[in-house]
Write a structure and sequence with these properties.
- This protein is an alpha/beta fold.
- It folds into three domains: about 30-70, lambda repressor-like DNA-binding domains (434 Repressor (Amino-terminal Domain), Orthogonal Bundle), CATH 1.10.260; about 90-195 and about 315-345, Response regulator (Rossmann fold); about 200-315 and about 350-389, Rossmann fold (3-Layer(aba) Sandwich), CATH 3.40.50.
- Helices cover about 40% and strands about 15% of the residues.
- The chain has helices at about 30-35, 40-45, 55-70, 75-90, 110-125, 145-150, 200-210, 225-230, 235-240, 260-270, 280-285, 315-330, 365-370, 375-389; strands at about 95-100, 130-135, 155-160, 165-170, 180, 185-190, 195, 220-225, 245-250, 270-275, 295-300, 310, 345, 350.
- It has a six-stranded parallel β-sheet with strand order 2-1-3-5-7-13, covered by helices on one side.
- Helix 2 crosses helix 3 (about 55-70), helix 5 (about 110-125) crosses helix 12 and helix 7 (about 200-210) runs parallel beside helix 9.
- The model is unreliable at about 355-389 (pLDDT under 50).
Length: about 400
């Protein structure tokens, strides 16, 4: 007898039918205007934080928009931004680069602030803005008067350049008409958006480079005021790398005490010293002798001394990035002192004059001979160059 087995075919998986229902309708600014009882133009301006709309109305419109689930259409935002930029280009918008330093540097000075300014000017011009420099001293040191002039001239974007000394701003100044960005930590107590060097990571990288070059007793000479101004980022990097016991701190406003510094050198015996004031340090270093070998001197900022390795904090890039962010703030009407200040940090790079250009290899023994030269000779050379600066 033949047995017939019946095999049931498996049912194929049935894909679900696509949802043919229409997508939910996007909430528009017309819906918000109807719900809030205001005009469409008022809603448009309020959502962009325009100063023409009162704070109370702006908050009410934003609350209605949030309740309705409003989300801007990114394509419309892009097109409107291009249209807005075209209108502003015809008006030649100006960005103010404001220097709050208590005194001026000689024309042509190659310092950190000037390099920041140069980078900001180049990028602002590429974006279609007219960068214009203002110095507080041109207004008898009266920042209130300077801001009044900027407001009268219709300037909405303000970049605060790095001052030569820390600046404390009056807290009763009205910054609400302006989009403001600071290219420094040295301005307080108000907290604006900032673009600054990434000092902690940069110092960690510099310490790693020196350690790879065989330096095991790395020290530093920092000003006490400078450390406070940068929130002790350098000290934190030294602590992470276990070199923080070899930091010589110079009191505020004072030069290096040569006698105390000489004792400190004999006690700690650093084989490298990192500083921001190379010329003063070289002048304070005692000459080489039987019981003392001068350490390698490295600058944590750019220097014009040809034989000194340094960390370049890229101030031109800091100014450039600050100009881009400020232009965006102006376009989006982000004005006044922000509730949540943002900080953008720029990485620098190491510049070693020994490897910057191709050169014939030195004769055998010349490197050790060079290292054993008196630091006093180097100091005299640095002093001559300082007179030329």
């Amino acid at each position: 007898m033949t047995t017939v087995r019946t095999v049931r075919a498996r049912s194929p998986l049935i894909a679900p039918m696509p949802d043919s229902s229409p997508p939910p309708r996007r909430v528009t600014i017309r819906d918000i205007a109807t719900a809030a009882g205001v005009s469409i133009m008022t809603v448009s301006l309020a959502l962009r934080n325009h100063p023409r709309i009162s704070v109370a109305t702006t908050q009410r419109v934003k609350a209605v928009a949030e309740k309705l689930g409003y989300r801007p259409d990114p394509e419309i935002v892009r097109l409107m931004t291009l249209l807005h930029q075209g209108r502003e280009a015809a008006q030649s918008p100006t960005l103010a680069l404001v220097d709050l330093s208590p005194h001026r540097l000689p024309p042509g000075s190659e310092n950190y602030c000037e390099r920041v300014r140069r980078g900001a000017i180049a990028r602002a011009e590429s974006l279609g803005y007219i960068p214009t420099s203002f110095h507080q001293l041109d207004y008898e040191g009266d920042l209130r008067r300077l801001l009044h002039v900027l407001h009268y001239r219709g300037i909405r974007g303000v970049m605060l350049l790095p001052p030569l000394q820390p600046v404390r701003l009056p807290e009763d100044l009205d910054w609400s008409p302006f989009s403001v960005i600071a290219a420094t930590y040295a301005i307080s107590p108000l907290e604006f958006h900032r673009v600054v060097p990434h000092q902690f990571i940069d110092m960690c990288r510099l310490l790693q480079i020196l350690e790879q070059r065989g330096r095991s007793r790395i020290g530093a000479v920092f000003g006490e005021g400078f450390e406070r101004r940068i929130h002790y980022h350098f000290t934190a990097a030294f602590a992470l790398h276990k070199h923080d016991a070899r930091i010589y701190r110079v009191p505020d406003g004072g030069p290096i005490d040569r006698e105390a510094f000489a004792k400190w050198l004999l006690e700690h015996r650093p084989d490298a010293l990192i500083t921001g004031n190379v010329e003063e340090l070289l002048a304070a270093l005692p000459p080489a002798r039987a019981d003392f070998t001068p350490p390698e001197v490295v600058s944590f900022r750019s220097t014009r001394l040809p034989d000194i390795a340094c960390w370049d904090e890229r101030p031109e890039e800091i100014g450039s990035v600050a100009a881009v962010l400020l232009a965006g703030m102006v376009q989006h009407h982000e004005t006044g002192v922000p509730e949540s200040p943002r900080t953008s940090m720029i990485h620098g790079f190491f510049r070693d004059p020994a490897t910057a250009v191709s050169a014939p290899k030195p004769a055998k023994g010349s490197k050790s001979t060079k290292a054993a030269k008196s630091a006093g000779t180097t100091a005299r050379s640095a002093a001559n160059k300082r007179a030329d600066r």
